[in-house]
Design brief:
Structural class: mainly alpha
Number of domains: 2
Radius of gyration: 20 Å
Largest sheet: none
Length: 205
């Protein structure tokens, strides 16, 4: 006999709750005082599940952190990038692109810091984070050619070089350093945008 739909629905809901609880535990562990070691075992203890359950859901420590990064992106409003690309004015598209990443870096700033530190010690995680960051470069490859058509200055520059500069400007490290201890990355978004516009040879607003 085929399981009743409500049983399947309840089972799926339980799976989703466990998934969410593990990600919540991973987030909490990353920002726990004292630089607590991040491991599958530690996450399992915090989520009150078995280590086997974490492995079944995510496969490895790097895959768990990859899923956490994607969850942070959803919570941090990264869906707004689609709206940036739809803007008919490429300068407005750039402004929304910068603002979206400023909000994303601000939403979970301590976690991003810890992820970067872990990536420096974990080659697998570093590759994962680098691949996720390439999404940002791909977005710039859409916006920069549109801006280049408008500006003689940027049209004369190699676009790959301009994209590399903007990729660096919109990184977490840039926002975090500019924000320092007294501001948030969102606070420094106007500064980053001004520098980005200067790099593109656009008139200041």
């Amino acid at each position: 006999m085929t399981p009743r739909p409500y049983r399947l629905g309840r089972r799926q809901a339980a799976v989703e709750r466990t998934h969410a609880r593990i990600l919540k535990a991973a987030r909490a562990l990353l920002v726990a005082p004292g630089n607590t070691a991040f491991s599958i075992e530690a996450v399992a203890r915090r989520a009150r599940v078995t280590r086997v359950t974490v492995y079944q859901r995510f496969g490895s420590r790097s895959k768990l952190l990859e899923a956490l990064f994607d969850d942070l992106a959803r919570q941090g409003g990264m869906w707004d990038l689609a709206d940036a690309f739809r803007q008919p004015d490429p300068e407005e598209a750039l402004a929304r692109f910068v603002t979206t990443f400023a909000r994303f870096w601000t939403a979970h700033r301590p976690i991003h810091r810890r992820l970067m530190a872990l990536g420096a010690l974990d080659a697998g995680l570093e590759r994962t984070l680098r691949a996720r960051q390439e999404w940002r470069r791909q977005g710039l490859r859409v916006i920069v050619p549109r801006l280049a058509q408008r500006s003689r200055g940027s049209a004369a520059k190699p676009q790959d070089e301009t994209i590399d500069v903007l990729f660096t400007l919109t990184s977490f490290q840039t926002f975090d350093l500019l924000a320092g201890p007294g501001r948030t990355p969102a606070d420094v978004a106007p500064i980053v945008l001004r520098v980005a516009r200067a790099a593109l040879g656009l008139a200041m607003r």
